[in-house]
Amino acid sequence: MSTTAPESLKMQLTYVETRSGEFKAQGVPYKAIRYLSSNTREIRYSHETHRALDGEMMMLPRTGIEPPRRIVTGHTPDGKSTTIFDGEVSSAPNVGTRFWVTKGWPTDNSGDNKDLRDESPDRAGIFQTNGTNFLAQDVPPGAVVPMHRTSTLDYGILISGELTLVLEDGPPLTLSEPGTVFVQRGTAHQWENRGPDWVRVIFVILDAKPFAYTNADGAQVTLEEYHSWSKAPT
Q: Which residue in 30, 50, 67, 98 is deepest, having the highest Cβ count within 10 Å?
């Protein structure tokens, strides 16, 4: 089954494979994708203002990188440590594969062992106010994540492939060694996969205060958050 996304949703180009096997280009923003099955890689389009898309099922092409195994621990009713989730989780091009999302600070480890992977962060589906998001991104060859800035502290680790980090000042930085780590401190940045292979990066995203500085005129300037699909503030 296939559908055509409204113009207002055509913010990012993602290739999807329909059940019949035909490849088509569809515009889908990050927060319009929800994972339903780690085994079949099925996705459902959904959006607050476009409920008509609900129920449309498509298949994402395989990335050439195996889905990551996720282990989550918890507690038994009598307080003993145990495993509550253990299995593969789906990965998809250009969109975050969520492992765990927390809302509220400090994090509360009590509860009913609900799978917090199913929680949707409140800013662009990736950034959680007063919370965290633990995720992976698989980036196809030739892909560019346009310049954006978020009011977050991002911890990242390169798992495979080669990724280029572009900042507003200074030369581009190439991450090529698996295990390379980076700390993104609320800076405007762009990611590019200039190589021939898929890239996998793991992120831990923590909410943070917007960066502020005093300009040459002595005025306080706060750098606003903006995302790939929105206009950068002037």
A: 98
Same-domain status, 160 and 88: yes
Cα separations in angstroms, 31 against 45, 47, 206: 9, 7, 18
β pairing state of 144-148 and 189-192: antiparallel
pLDDT per residue as tens digits for the range 180-189:
999 999 999 9
Q: Are 56 and 3 in contact (CB under 8 A)?
A: yes
- Rounded distance between C-alpha atoms, residue 218 and residue 213, angstroms: 9
Q: Are 167 and 189 in contact (CB under 8 A)?
A: yes
Note whether residue 70 is domain-resident. Answer: no
**Which tokens belong to 23?**
């490849």
Q: What is the pLDDT of residues 149-205, one digit of tens each?
A: 999 999 999 999 999 999 999 999 999 999 999 999 999 999 999 999 989 999 999
Sequence-distant (≥ 6) Cβ neighbours of residue 120 within 8 angstroms: 31, 34, 101
Query: What DSSP letter does each residue of 7-47 carry, written as one string?
Result: GGGTTSEEEEE-TTS-EEEEE--GGGEEE--TTT-EEEE--
Helix (H, G, I), strand (E, B) or coil at 53: helix
Q: Are residues 53 and 79 in the same domain?
A: no
Total count of domains within the chain: 2
Token pair 């990242």 in the structure block, residue: 156
